[in-house]
Amino acid sequence: MEKYIQKANVLIESLPYIKEFYNKIFVIKYGGSAMEDETLKKEFAKDIVLLKYIGINPVIVHGGGKQIGDLLARLQKETKFVEGLRITDGETMEVVEMVLVGKVNKEIVSLINSAGGKAVGLSGKDGGLLFAKKMKHSKKSGGQDIDMGMIGDITKVNPEVIHTLDTSKFIPVIAPIATDEHGNTYNVNADTAASEIASALCAEKLVLLTNVNGVLCADGKLKPTLTEKAAKRLIDDKEIHGGMIPKVRCCINALKGGVKKTHIIDGRVIHALLIEIFTNKGIGTQIIK
């Protein structure tokens, strides 16, 4: 009997959050180990379906860097990176779009639908969702600017297609591929795309799934909550460093864009999304205004 009482207590603990977030939009950046481990993939899909059934509108933006790298290696196509960004020529861009839109996106859609949801796969090209311009990279190499190829900076988000899907009870799953006014195709960083989409939707939450516990102190301890100001200070003090810097900056930009709260959580933990959203303690780092 005790275990059933504990289960009931978990449901009761989540009740205030379900009431608070009913009919709100959560933008979830899905990537890293959560996209690679078979058990985590299936449980993530169930978590998303649960959110939809209790009245929350999840919008998923996914990455796929590992899958792109794997196919490029099989094609014996050399890959070069500059500060973590993949130099993307025309041939590489074709592979990127094929993997993100044709493979990864459809796999996520299939998993969600198999779990009882109604997911629809999109790229930023669909419905004029994402517009971008060619990224300019200021890093010098032999006195010359580095041409990053078809990597884009988002210039505009048109969320109309997302609103249409949400009101029709569908779950949008978005590959971060954008276009410009001339029809050129660009690869966009998935964290950045999620941040910009969350801002355009005035989302209740932006959640970034990562391969670390969250934002860590210099002593390795997790920081459960950070204000925007504190996060900026930790970046300046180099306490936040490496790959966590762009993630934190995406959260800060989303807060400036009207998102109520942002989260960086460990996608390697099963049901991390539900633990962060529906428990008093949470699991990762929340960054707030």
Structure description:
With 289 residues, the protein is α/β, with parallel strands linked by helices. It has a single domain (2-288), classed as Carbamate kinase (3-Layer(aba) Sandwich). It has 9 helices and 16 strands. The protein has an 8-stranded mixed β-sheet with strand order 5-10-2-1-13-15-16-14, with helices on both faces. The longest helix has 25 residues, at 90-114. The protein is globular. The termini are far apart. 42% of the residues are buried.
Number of domains: 1
Range of strand content = 15-25%
Distance between the termini: 43 Å
In sequence order, what are the helices and strands, one letter per element?
A: HEHEHEEHEEEEEHEEEHEEHHEHE
Structural class: alpha/beta
CATH superfamily: Acetylglutamate kinase-like
- According to CATH, what is the class? Alpha Beta
